[in-house]
Request: fold
Amino acid sequence: MAIPLPETEPLLETPLGGLHRSLGARLVPFAGYAMPVQYPAGILTEHLHTRAQAGLFDVSHMGQAELLGAGAATALERLTPADVEGLQPGRQRYALLTTESGGIFDDFMVANLGSRLFLVVNASRKAEDFARIAAALPAGVRLNPLPDRALLALQGPQAVAAITPLAPELAALRFMDVAEARIGGIPVLASRSGYTGEDGFEISVPAEQAAALAKLLLAQPGVAPIGLGARDSLRLEAGLCLYGSDLDETTSPVEAALTWSIGKRRRMAWDFPGAERVREELANGPRRLRVGIRPDGRQPARGHTPIHAPGGAPIGEITSGGFGPSLNAPMAMGYVTPGHATDGTPLELLVRGKPLASRVAPMPFTPHRYAR
Amino acid sequence: MSDLRFTQDHEWVRLEGGIATVGITDHAQTALGDVVFVELPEIGREVVVGEACAVVESVKAASDIFAPVAGKIVEVNAALTDNPGAINSEPTGAGWFFRMAPVDPGAVGDLLDAATYAAFVETLA
Reply:
């Protein structure tokens, strides 16, 4: 079998690089960073541990920024169909940056911190996103990227129990609440959110205190370090999109089944980039739709696997696929023509030239367990 | 003799009584991570050296297994279908993939011995 050789390009490190090595992580290149794909426990064990107890993820490669100044929310709405003006202080929301032609430029989180907005964007897109946002700002609104902050995610049913003794005030947050707090004396900005489908927190922390915070959290009962490998299988089981795989500049919010992230007011004003395409697709239906797919048997189908109607014509492609450790079965998401998008519709996936019987299936594959 | 021989693609071969048993090395299973599915070749298939003839799928990715020598597939490890984890727990034992016969004993002998393979793996670190 072929084992890919490590890349030789110099990679960036997060503030937790040393900690990852000391924990025995296997580091791989991801979005220009050396990131832990797994620790010695392995992806399967790490995935199941997160669903059963709690996992700590280093997601410091993601882009963090503040948007400051009067009119920041209005300014951001020039780039996203989300309702940012209506976002209450202390609340966070999932949003899309859209292109003029109605494609998805990135997906991101925006939080209202009262005095400013706080953004978290994908690592692979942060340079493009920040340039795009900065270029669209009026006088008086300023984008302040925060490269000196790390980001940790604490995810799983025991996440709240792990954080309560360290920062009781964070235990009071509900899903998508944000608050500034101190964890063991370390100043953080925490949200009750994540990307695994589990309850938990995403914690922004000054880079120089990130390792101390990570060690503190890892010392709590039930908390184990989890790599990007399990992060990917967890998010896919939760039916959540990965930018660059499931979303790109050709996919529209309607095709991606992310219409819910468009604010009601925005859908009346149609005043966001790509509104024309979104409006047309909502009225007449999109050409393709993102769906969940479950192959029969145990064989996984990976990204770029062609999807056919049974015995028939090509109708789409898998965008993310793998094996769901909690599902104990293969799972995928992909785009199909709308006539084949109903739950239960039989599909054939062409894996290495051979048809694999599959069905359209509801997502999430494993139920979300958010603290709503 | 039951000495293992190795390829630079991380397969091992054990030649016993004219039958070559093939699997992947401990280094390979460690690199792959948890195996969740194996696609095995059809019995009776004739393969040439280096031909992709099985697929191993971990949580993370799919990888081809290449025939280390030429020959005919005479047996596959059907137990892997229900227990692909054997590839991780016993890569050179219960985790074997398939058996080939007849094979050229000289071709098996020309593969890497354990010390040479171990030195090769060191260069990858």
Summary: The helical segments of chain B are 26-32, 79-82, 86-89, 105-109, 114-124. The mean pLDDT of chain B is 95.
